Amino acid sequence: MSQSLSSLTQLEMTSIGLSSDSHGLWKAYRGLNIKKLSWWTMHWKVKDGLLMAESLTQLEKLFICVDKDSPGLWENISGLNIKGLTLRSHSEGLFVKHVSLLSQSISSFKYLDSLTVHLRTYIDIKVLQTLKCLNFYCDALLPSELRELVYKLSASTLEGNLAFNCASFNGLSFKRIPQEDYIAFNQEMGSLKQLAVKRFRIYDRTNHFIKWIDSEDSAWSERANKVVVDDDHDDASVVDDGYTFYIKSISPEIINRISMRFQIIPVMVI
Fold first, then answer.
1. Source organism's superkingdom (predicted)?
2. Run of H or E residues at 181
């Protein structure tokens, strides 16, 4: 494998699908000019230690799709000089068990300016000062967690999208949370001078389609609510692979979801 890869001197993008680490995997990429890596795995078991950062020195964008995280997974990506990171699972939001290790790895990314995550439940994401764009998708987000996330982001200068289901998750099933609880916080967000909410759309489920088969667009209708601040429907900024996957993976148990677009600017001190 090393001999074959060494001849690909112009290779800049690669996709890897493995069930676990293999001896010499990252050594095989050493010296190549890989700028974008898509990494698909079910459950990562590390054998090669921390050779990823040593080998992929030119890497700029990293996409990881994993069903179960492990300590070795987050340690393995630590120290990369990436500018963009995307994290999700194969069929639903990613359940992160080792939150502190993930936070440590994100803290090591000195040049990270774009972060996209699709999570099963809320976790305390490390927000770097270098971050300019955040796309945060969550299968179950409490109003209190939304408040915590927004106030945490308000200390930064960035923009992005938040999309989440109005529900809590107990590990087995979802429990509906009234959308009015989120609308109340939307009014509170209006008092934050550094935060501009460009989109706040509530969607109601119209039918219980079978995910991955039926059209996800036909399953939702937009809520007409005077409290909702709506931007241009033709805004394509939220149309990305992460958002599309989030919509397709929503459980039939979910009745309401919310899509937000925000921009945070520093407060001018006179």
1. Eukaryota
2. helix 179-189
